[in-house]
Each structure stands twice: as structure tokens, then as C-alpha cells.
Amino acid sequence: MPLKFSRFSIKTKNQSYHSPTLSPNKTNSRQKAKMRPELMSRTGHGSSSATDRRLNALLRHLSSSPSSMDAHDSISASPTSGFQNDSVFSHVVRGPEDPILGVTVAYNKDPSPVKLNLGVEKQSSSLLMTGKSRIKEYLPIVGLADFNKLSAKLIFGADSPAIRENRVTTVQCLSGTGSLRVGAEFLAKHYHQRTIYIPQPTWGNHPKIFTLAGLSVKSYRYYDPATRGLNFLGLLEDLGSAPSGAIVLLHACAHNPTGVDPTLDQWERIRQLMRSKGLLPFFDSAYQGFASGSLDADAQSVRMFVADSGECLAAQSYAKNMGLYGERVGALSIVCKTAVVASKVESQLKLVIRPMYSNPPIHGASIVAAILRDRNLYNEWTIELKAMADRIISMRHQLSDALRVRGTPGDWSHIIKQIGMFTFTGLNSKQVAFMTKEYHIYMTSDGRISMAGLSSKTVPHLADAIHAAVTSVV
Ligand code: PLA
């Protein structure tokens, strides 16, 4: 049995002993094995620190106890000890920065006073500190019950028949990412079709989340670079030829990165096609309230798929709409055909969650529950949300005006037409690199800019940069 204390790891019988402080570099392990504490102090390795004293006492004890150490026992360098010059991890190659979160890493390193970060959006609600929780106990595996109930109401609507009929199971998860991952793990284990179709393009983390959960990822056409709008026919064709039962990832609103959403009529056509083929919708709702400024309008797509009594999954994030980015608060809901199925599904979700992180954090969920529960706080929140959505729309107009004034070549009307936090500018990666190098403007290499990172003061700087990029870099 290994005995462990401080930086020492001592094992008995046929196992190695090692201690970084016992390491005269050139001494071989056999010699080290023979070292006695009294010898060690003479060789200068028996320091008088408390830890070393404890080690010496232990070694004395082991050497005087025949049953615990026989002639074959030894103290030797284990492959993970300080005796070796090479790390056991020396073969590990440096991984690349994340294409989205790495933008902020690069931005932070830039000393320029005019630098501008349009990579990841940032905009916070002033309600952030509401409902501070002083309770620090474990939550149940599925999270805060009140939070779950209120989250389901928020996305499916207060009058949702699925909620009334207890056909929805909701579990609190680690923001949007965690909700997607838990849903994906559940599907990989319990759903008969393991192929998921994701839009092309989509949020860069989607393929990784689903692949690592064990699903096979395929894509469906979504964005048309020529019109900078929806490739509706391509979408219908691709979903139409997907195998029956396949899972389809849909952005509930404010599609990331394109800012292009289907109209309600188009959603209805998508719903009909998916239901006729038995495709399973998995909604990613990371921006409810941000697309239109209305929480209800932004959940319309999801509610259409629940109103037909069919089944679906929905991952919710409170990172953006409540500004709770670092609190990691979100929810996964699975709408089922019956209450009995829903409760069995919940029992299996618990088995997925328990070995991953046991239970979710309490603080953020109690903030959300406090806001959703209280009529005044809820109203205040919706007013803030509307103001934030309006501010983004105003930034879109200011940027589009600034480009028109400069006579920047090209059609920039998509800046105004697109929805949500991001504008998919259409700038290519060379133009993006140019803007970063010459203008210290940071964005993802696909040309996506976060409108929330922009202000009236910085619009002219961005417009100058875009103008220079499109007129000088092809
Ligand atoms: N789904 C979509 C479509 C998203 O854009 C994001 C976040 C998430 C889920 C997950 O967010 P959460 O886990 O923080 O709740 N996308 C960001 C951040 C805002 C990121 O990449 O992590 C983005 O810049 O695209």
C-alpha cells in the first residue's frame, strides 16, 4: 500500500520508494536504497526540515522492521521522480490556443493603447450579484430544483403543455457547453441513432463536444457566402437526405457565428421535414433575449417543436443573457412523450452526471433562480436585456453608416440584417490578420466580430481598419 505524505511517496514490498530530496543526481538507485538516515545526514542530504525529519523517522522504522522490508526491497528512482532528467511528459506537444478563446489571450499580450477585442463578446447585467447564496452545501446531482423548473418555463413558455404534463426533465449543468455535453453523453448511451448533424458553419466547439461524447458528426448546409444569408434549399436537401432518426443540432436563435436565423415560416418548414423523417432536434439556446430583445420571441423556434407534442432536447446558457459567464450556469432539458419516460430519462442523466462532476455549483443557479422567481427582478432583467439588444442593433447601424461614409467597396447590408451578438463580416483570414497587425483589432480568423465589444468611440477605428483591409488585402 503506498504511504503518501508531503512530496514523498513511499511504497512497500516490490514497489519503489522515491523522494526528491533524497536525490544525489549521480547516485544509482541501489546505492540510494542502501542509504540510511545517519549516512544521509553525513552526505548532506539529511536536512533538518520537518518533512525530512519525518522521512528519516519513517526510514528508520522501515529498516528496523524485518517484516516491512526484506533484502529485495529498495529505494529507487521511479520514472516520475526527480532522479530522471527527462519528464515522463516530454513527448507531449504544445496544443494550439482555442480559435475563439485564444483571441483574448493574444489581445491581452498586445501593449497597444488602441487595441480592440472583438473576439468573445462581453456585456454584463447589473443584476449579477442578485441572490448571492451563502449556502455552500452540495446541490443534488440534477442541481437546484427551483432553477430547473424556472429554466424550463423560460425556454418552453409558462403555459407549455409539456411542462404541465410533466413530460420535461431539466437538469442544471455547467453553462451551455456542459449542457450540450451532458445531452450528447446521454444520447450516445441511450439513443439508437448516433449521428448528429450540425450546421455549416457552427460554433467551433460543437464538433468537439459531440465527437468526444461518442457521436458521429456530420454537417448540413446552412450559410450561403454569396448572399451572406441562409442557404435554405441546401439545408432542406441535407436534412432531407439524413438517415431517419438522426440528431440535428439547431441554434435556437442568433446563430453563431453567422448571425443568420431562419424566418418563422422557414422554421415551420424545417419542423415539418424533421418530424416527417423522425429527426431528433437538439436546440442550443445560448442567446435567448439577445437576438430580438424579447425572451419569448427568441424561444419561438424551440416552442414550435414542443407544440407538436414531439420530443426534443434543449441546452440553455445564462452566460450571455444574465452576464453570468464565469458562474457556469445552464440547463439541459429533454422533452419526452410521457411523464414516465421523462422520469426514467432523468434517472439516467444522473448516472451520466455523477461520474463527470457529481453535482453542479450552487452560486450562479441561485442568482438565476432569484431573478426568475421574483416579478420585479424579472422585469428589471427583461428591460436590461432589451437595452443590450438595442445597443447591439445601434452598433450595427453605426458600423454600416461608417463604412458607407468611407465608400468601402462591397455590400455591407448584412451587418444590419444579421442578428445577435456577432457579425459575420465576410472578411477573410488574411484581412483579419492584417487588421490585427496594423490596427490591433482582435477577432476570430473567420471574420466574426462581437458587436458587444464595440462602442460609438471605437466604431471609426474599426471602419478604418475594414476599409483598409478590403482595399489593400485580397
Ligand atoms: N453555444 C453557442 C452557440 C455559443 O456561442 C456558446 C459560447 C456556447 C454554446 C457556450 O457558452 P457557455 O458554455 O459559456 O454557456 N460561445 C462564445 C464563447 C460566446 C466560447 O466560445 O466559449 C463564443 O465566443 O463563441
UniProtKB/TrEMBL annotation:
EC number: 2.6.1.1
UniProt keyword list: Aminotransferase, Pyridoxal phosphate, Transferase
Record's catalysed reaction(s): L-aspartate + 2-oxoglutarate = oxaloacetate + L-glutamate
First-level EC class: transferase
One protein family per Pfam: Aminotran_1_2
Record SUPFAM superfamilies: PLP-dependent transferases (SSF53383)
Domain of life: Eukaryota
Domain Aminotransferase class I/classII large: 132-466
Disordered: annotated span: 1-51
CC cofactor: pyridoxal 5'-phosphate
Biased composition (Polar residues): 9-28
Other remarks on this protein: In eukaryotes there are cytoplasmic, mitochondrial and chloroplastic isozymes.
Family: Belongs to the class-I pyridoxal-phosphate-dependent aminotransferase family.
Quaternary structure and partners: Homodimer.
Name the record gives this protein: Aspartate aminotransferase
Organism: Xanthoceras sorbifolium
Upper taxonomic lineage: Eukaryota, Viridiplantae, Streptophyta, Embryophyta, Tracheophyta
